[in-house]
Amino acid sequence: MGTPPTRRSRNRRSTPTSRAASRRAPTLWKRAWTTGQAASKASARCVCPAPRTRPADTGVRPAGVHSAPLDPRVPAALRELGRRNRATLFTVALAASFAALHRFTGQDDLVIGVAGTHRQGPEMRGLVGLCVNTLPVRVNTAGDPSFTVLLERVREALLDAQQRREVPFDLILDRLGAAARGADGTALIRVTSDVLGEPTTLRLPGLADSYVEVGAGEAKFDLSFGMVDTETPAGLVQYSRTALDEEAAAALGAHYAALLTAVADDPGLALSRLPGGPPAAAGGETGGHPAEALLRSYPEVAEAAVAEPAGGPLLAYAVLRGIGGPSPAELRSRLRTALAADLVPAAVTLLDTLPRTADGTPDPARLPGFPSAPAPEGAHADAVTDGFTDLLGHKPGPDDDFFLLGGHSLVAVQLAERLRRALKLPLTGLDIMQARTPRAVTALLAAREAERAAAPTAASSRPRRTREGTVLVTGGTGGVGAFVLRELAARGRPVLALARPESAHLVAGEGVDVIEGDLTDLDGLRKAVDSADAVIHAACTFTRPEVDVTAMAAMVGTWSRGPFVFVSSVDAYGHPAGEWVAEESASQQPLSGYGQAKVDCEGLLLRAAGAQGRGGASAVRSPLVWGAHQRLRDQLRWGATGVLYQAAREGRPIVLPRPGTHGHAWYGAAWVHAAALARAVVSCLDSPVHGVANAVSGHLSWRDLATGLTELLGSDSEIQETDEVHPDLDHRWHYHAGRLAPSLRAQPDEDWRSVLAAMTGPAER
């Protein structure tokens, strides 16, 4: 998944004029806005200039100011520097602001806002109003240039921005939409820069006037650099106390003044030799390797570790605060500019989380590329390595990440099917996506083999019907089918379970016979249906609709007695016009391939019902299915709700469609407890609905689900709202479920909070 869109602002904010604009603050982007180009690709989040946790947005930004005096010669020297380089004093001060921001954050791609006037030409002299616009100026400081080279870059970028000064800043925000906002909702410009001259007063006939300094109680931006060009020159920073702490801001103010002095004395200095540097590590973390401390000091890095394998090179690991951050090469480049050569790690590896031992220290045995644990050996390991190699194009190391090697969901399914057939062990694509490395996949296969050895021996796979009332169940190894098997066992119904040979041990048990087969084995399906007195069809490929429809046609063609229950989906309704959907409502386009397959399967079943000795047919449409089963846990993590789950797990902002977006008052989803769904499905054996019925336990808004996930996962993710709708969250329907209501009535611990707690418990982490 990519990064969810962030909130689009409709607020209109005036921009103070000229030098007063320095009392506002800058914006820092990892991939920033460029005028007229790549605007739609500027999807990276804004990053605070310092590692300070931002509180919930209350609309108030208490301001602070730190200044340091300059030698009176400094402004004159900077003017001369500008004259030699065809730049004004303002441009020189702006270049110094970029240099200070680069030294403070370690980032190269930066945006600082400046004020530009709309008051052009004599025709506007009589106009009363604030004719000021904010200009985003983007400069790249990469390559450790000298200050004079940086000044040239800044001059060109400023001239380019001024060529587009008529474009209103609010229009830029509106056109960029989500791309113009950071993860915390802050708009593009968060850092500004200006030169502050002598204050002026309004002179009116007959009146005496004097200048009164009014303290700024609120900062309009996170950070503002200001060079005071008066008889008592100074370098100052104004900052929002919600973005910078006192210590970091004081250091930045002192460094900015020192930097102005340094470039006045020697403008040929490289940026790496100028005063300034990252703030002290957050949380008081000290000690450790210098590279580790420096990595932790960067605003984008949440955790870091440095390790040195015996006889191996120095290795560094970092966990970013969000997606779209610096690459491993960029982080190592920063370390190279700040550390001696012998202290620079050979590589920096990005991790989702830093593996730790029981005492909280980093666990070297679980760090990728750390050769403390021998590579796995044996037939399982060889098969896994060969599968990775053939499907991903090159041979992996034991701890190489599936996704970083170029893997995706379709390759995960292909790899799982290959290993399942070769090793005769149960494995799914979701297993691959969760395990991710050859070492972890090999360990999972060993665990599955041990589970099979310890399980009861499966009954004969020969199709037979030795007991009256035998119910054929497909999909018994899945989340829904497993609950159906439990419900049938509780009612004492004899069961014939369809399963692949490698999965037979997962369904074998008292009262359960096993017949080998799957949805692609049409002869096996026909034999299975012919051997039973009733059918509950709960298996589905999810990704191959043609297989699902062909399998249903084979089963219906053989069905000759007893009831047939098909576990369908509310996706078969498509996109109804109204908010509430009655049972058996007509399908509305667009339908997904999955939803269309469900409709087609239902049609095959319902048209055949009641003819040639067949019993009644029931198509039970279910929404999201939740329950304490690993397959259902996997779907919570990686299915339609995965965009919410993964954001909460990683502490990233959770971005939801605002109620009313696109004219829809509610966004969320229907859900059903797997146990309630099983009760409803089994009830249809004795009382077929002779058509379509919904199985719904309740409806849950995305905000309620996101709030529940953050609480259960202990996440500090901020929940934001946007006027855009992520495709996985474009759901706004409620479904009536009257026909199966008695079976769906909630039992103890079947409320949504209880079932989510079970699904996100220790087995999930």
Short note summarizing the structure:
With 765 residues, this protein is of the alpha/beta class.
Q: If you consult CATH, what is the topology of the domain at 18-48 and 63-118 and 128-200 and 214-273?
A: Chloramphenicol Acetyltransferase
Termini, distance in Å?
20 Å
The average pLDDT is 79
Morphology call: elongated
Approximately how much helix is present in the residues? 25-40%
The CATH level-2 architecture of the domain at 18-48 and 63-118 and 128-200 and 214-273 is identified as 2-Layer Sandwich
Q: Give the strand order, joined by hyphens, for the main sheet.
A: 12-11-10-13-14-16-20
Number of strands: 23
Low-confidence spans = 1-60, 281-287, 458-465
CATH class type of the domain at 18-48 and 63-118 and 128-200 and 214-273: Alpha Beta
Largest sheet entry: 7 strands, parallel
